[in-house]
Write a structure and sequence with these properties.
The chain is an alpha+beta fold and 129 residues long. The protein has one domain: Aspartate Aminotransferase, domain 1 (Alpha-Beta Complex). Helix content is 19%, strand content 23%. It has a 6-stranded antiparallel β-sheet with strand order 1-2-3-4-6-5, with helices on one face. A hairpin with a 5-residue loop joins strand 3 and strand 4.
Length: 129
């Protein structure tokens, strides 16, 4: 008998992104992180508050314009460099679809280039003979 897989609460939101050739979905700190063109765009988090909703990867300089356009967005309480759309927001579905739409249109306010992972350097044990 196969293992039953739980469907992520916000899978319906990343489905429109899945048709993009550069789309990548990865697990990241208990979320599902969506990438387009190598940029981290949105993390879909279905945990408990404050980790239940969308985390929009953006730079602080874009916060004001994004929150003016999508009123339910606010800085995340733990990761204030990113904006957060809690699923408890009154117009969550409409706001979340708009965030995804902006990401799909490559709005320059959304998305960050992830820092490359450093490969651990091997400790030197002295000269090999």
């Amino acid at each position: 008998m196969g293992r039953i897989r739980r469907v992520h609460a916000f899978a319906w939101l990343w489905e429109p992104m899945a048709g993009e050739p550069s789309f990548l979905l990865r697990s990241m700190f208990g979320t599902k992180a969506a990438y387009l063109d190598g940029k981290l765009m949105i993390c879909f988090s279905d945990g408990k508050e404050p980790w239940r909703g969308l985390l929009v990867a953006t730079e602080r300089q874009h916060h004001a314009s994004l929150t003016a356009e999508i009123g339910d967005l606010r800085p995340h309480s733990v990761l204030p460099k990113w904006l957060y759309l809690p699923d408890a927001a009154d117009s969550f579905e409409r706001s979340a679809e708009r965030v995804v739409e902006l990401a799909l249109h490559r709005d320059p306010r959304i998305g960050v280039v992830p820092k490359p992972h450093k490969t651990p350097r091997r400790k030197s044990r002295g000269p090999r003979i």
